[in-house]
Fold this sequence. Notes:
With 133 residues, the protein is of the alpha+beta class. It has one domain (2-126): Glutaredoxin (3-Layer(aba) Sandwich). Helix content is 44%, strand content 18%. The protein has helices spanning 2-30, 40-47, 64-77, 90-93, 123-126, and strands spanning 52-57, 81-85, 103-108, 111-117. Strands 2-1-3-4 form a 4-stranded mixed β-sheet. It is elongated and about 60 Å long.
Amino acid sequence: MTSTLGVIAVGFVVLMLASQLLVRLRARALVGAPVPALPGPVGEAVGRAQPVLLYFFSPGCAACTFITPKVRELQAQHPGVFAVDVSRDLSLASPLRVMATPTTVEIADGKIVGYHVGVFPPELLSRFGAATR
């Protein structure tokens, strides 16, 4: 009985690690790809070829509770920064293949130039005018 539980536990861990790897590999494959058509103000910002930062979060995401306030603060100061609640706006998350939160997508000249799953590098916000602390 104990060995069966051990096998189940190991299988579960392997499955979780494999799913994380899949998400990260899919994200890496999108870097350099043209941005698909996006609706609303985000689509308009991408169409103007300005640098755009899309931060996808969900209300139940523990990591997002720390990151979202900083991104929202930057969003108030920079027209190319958007915080997107995936529970309310899948029309932006789906075309960009967002599969986990937090996910941050950097766009420049109509192409995806950065795709970060999980906590993003600290210098990312500074590229959009935020002071890093």
